[in-house]
């Protein structure tokens, strides 16, 4: 990879908001998005286990803050450049002891595993927050001083309104463009 111009991002990835349904249903949202952009993408599992839920995750999962939840944390790369840390959170009372709590990638997809466990998709909400990175995020994403992160949180609920999955994606802000789409036929300036 050639050295970028001073001030230019090392790589640039597009992230659609809301997530396209065909991409959401793929084996990996990130890999499907990156491949469609012609990028050499990779991912590796950083952590699978239980951890205390932070305030936002707890609210989305409808549990008390600091309640243990199942966390599945992955690092996403383009070439050798880290671009995102994505963590899936699940209620431990519903999903601890299932294959969602096992350390390997869920095959064929996370969505198929949730369906196999009896959860039909009902709705989702996505929020986007920009902020300075934590020291751990700065190190993991190899951010330069002053670079920020964008946090995308997608909370998914079943047809019965059960909080099934929260996906928190920490994106290196300078390495992403967020494409916003509306329902087909309803785009306006």
From TrEMBL:
Coiled coil: none annotated. Pfam families: UTRA. InterPro entries: Bact_HTH_transcr_reg (IPR050679), Chorismate_lyase_/UTRA_dom_sf (IPR028978), UTRA (IPR011663). Signal peptide: none annotated. It comes from the Bacteria. Gene3D superfamilies: Chorismate lyase-like (3.40.1410.10). SUPFAM superfamilies: Chorismate lyase-like (SSF64288). Residues 36-177 form the UbiC transcription regulator-associated domain. This is UbiC transcription regulator-associated domain-containing protein. It comes from Nonomuraea monospora.
